[in-house]
Amino acid sequence: MTEHRERRRFSRVNFSTPITLLQGDQQWYGKLLDISLKGVLVEMPAAADYDMHLTLTANIPLSDQANIDMILQPAHQENELLGLECVSIDMESIGHLRRLIELNLDDPSATERELTELIATI
User: Fold this and answer.
1) Each residue of 82-103: pLDDT tens digit?
2) pTM of the model
3) Which residue of 47, 89, 112, 114 has the fewest CB atoms within a 10 Å radius of its CB?
């Protein structure tokens, strides 16, 4: 079986909202384009000078009282688009993320299957 077929897949949902990314003492404001249980795709400012080999801390506001906080590893970059893989997320944030994905998928049970798949990789 090829690596592509063996790789687990997670549903990505389009979700356009501001995102704050931090690395060391630097901070950037970008635009979240899509999100999954395993990562995000972000549009970053052209002048953003981050290190692709170091993790970034992300804050994604959902409302005045709810946000998703993640530790992300840069996975790929194409022009201003940055794909980031989630390497750490707290329980409260994963609850918010799960609900966000459930609300945006046609098959809410798919979220439960993906969450089970994600937990199995830990």
Assistant:
1) 999 999 999 999 899 988 888 8
2) 0.81
3) 47
